[in-house]
Amino acid sequence: MRAVVSRVATAAVTVDDVVVGEIGRGxxxxxxxxxxxxxxxxxxxxxxxxxxxxxxxEDGATSAADLGLPVLVISQFTLxxxxxxxxxxxxxxxAPGEVAEPLVDEVVAELRRRGAExxxxxxxxxxLVSSVNDGPxxxxxxx
Length: 143
Hints:
Helix 1 crosses helix 3 (97-113). This protein has 143 residues and is an alpha/beta fold. It contains 3 helices and 6 strands, in the order βββααβαββ. It has helices at 39-51, 64-67, 97-113; strands at 2-15, 18-23, 26-32, 71-75, 118-120, 128-142. Strands 1, 2, 3, 4, 5 and 6 form a 6-stranded mixed β-sheet that branches. It has one domain: D-tyrosyl-trna(Tyr) Deacylase, Chain: A. The mean pLDDT is 96.
């Protein structure tokens, strides 16, 4: 699994002119699922996102977990686009929707089990994502 994680001042996702997920200060995680990924990968990715040390907090608190900050999770199959040949991305490494959706749901569920407030996009929908990157701080996580 892959995630592009940004530290944000605010982030929101809109579907059909309706805001379906929104957070203030926290993390925006765009999550992609590969063909070989499984539930263990989803849980590991959730832990890594939640414990990622990218904040400056009091008493050494540096992660969303430490600070009680929310996470906005949005499915992003294009993270598995292969652009090494030609100009048209290949999507062969991305998991099909029926495999990917439950694994993105598992990332969300694991974050919530860990005590995180989680907002989400809508799987498979055309989404408009807005964010104000804090830093900027954006990292690629792979598990």
